[in-house]
């Protein structure tokens, strides 16, 4: 008979957290300054224009993970832009509207994650899931150049 190992709770020291971007995750920090927000929006605009599909969410957001896994299941490997700060989602979306990559100027209830397809605002997780369930997501992804089949 095997002997059980005694349980011991390990106390971890608080270490400064480093975010290391992987191939599909892109992180940026912000201090909620106007200049930092403008840099973040400029970086997002550049990423949206460079990628056929991109997911933007808060760091560690489980719904961001769900959106990414759904798109990976369809054959798309979208980059994920994770925001490390407490930023107002509505403010970020309105800033993106002012930069011309989103046409939703009257957004009042949208939350992260937000998905851009083909350089344009597509919607949140609810829109991605609804479009997937109706069978319209794959043709949209093909038209955007994210799928080649």
Automatic annotation (TrEMBL):
Subcellular localization is given as: Cytoplasm
Kindly report the protein's main subcellular placement as a broad class.
cytoplasm
Keyword set, alphabetical order: Cytoplasm, Redox-active center
Q: Which Gene Ontology cellular component terms are annotated? A: cytoplasm
Q: Any idea where the Glutaredoxin domain is?
A: 53-121
Cytoplasm as a keyword of this entry, yes or no, is yes
Spell out the PROSITE patterns in the cross-references.
GLUTAREDOXIN_2
One matching Pfam family is Glutaredoxin
Family the UniProt entry places it in? Belongs to the glutaredoxin family. CC-type subfamily.
- This one is known as Glutaredoxin domain-containing protein
